[in-house]
Specification:
116 residues; Lipocalin; 8 strands
Length: 116
């Protein structure tokens, strides 16, 4: 007598991954203020160097790396430049962050989520 085995496999579709903050964010402004702020601190940064890609709460792009909390708090760092930006993503798709330099300047960056 031979014994046989029977298996039943059930495949389920994996839930969609991602967060409400996932998307591509394009740099729209940079403003500097305070002591020691260079005269060219204000303006629209080059999109190639500041486009951020957020996927599953991980931020990358333009030399930047970071994370996004479930509440939209953003921490970015650029190891090449040795700087960190802390910010927030709002419900309208704007990401705003600040960094403080060692000279006392404050730089505010704004990115906007690309639609589509």
């Amino acid at each position: 007598m031979t014994a046989g085995c029977s298996y039943q496999l059930v495949w389920q579709e994996a839930p969609a991954s991602g967060t409400a903050f996932d998307g591509d964010y394009v740099g729209v402004s940079r403003e500097g203020s305070g002591v020691g702020c260079p005269p060219n601190a204000n303006g629209v940064p080059s999109a190639a160097s500041v486009t951020m890609f957020i996927r599953n709460s991980v931020v990358m792009g333009g030399g930047w790396q970071g994370t996004v909390s479930p509440q939209g708090l953003v921490t970015l760092r650029n190891d090449t430049l040795g700087i960190q930006i802390n910010g927030q993503i709002d419900g309208q798709g704007s990401m705003r962050g600040e960094r403080r330099s060692t000279t006392g300047s404050v730089f505010t960056y704004v990115w906007r989520k690309r639609s589509g």
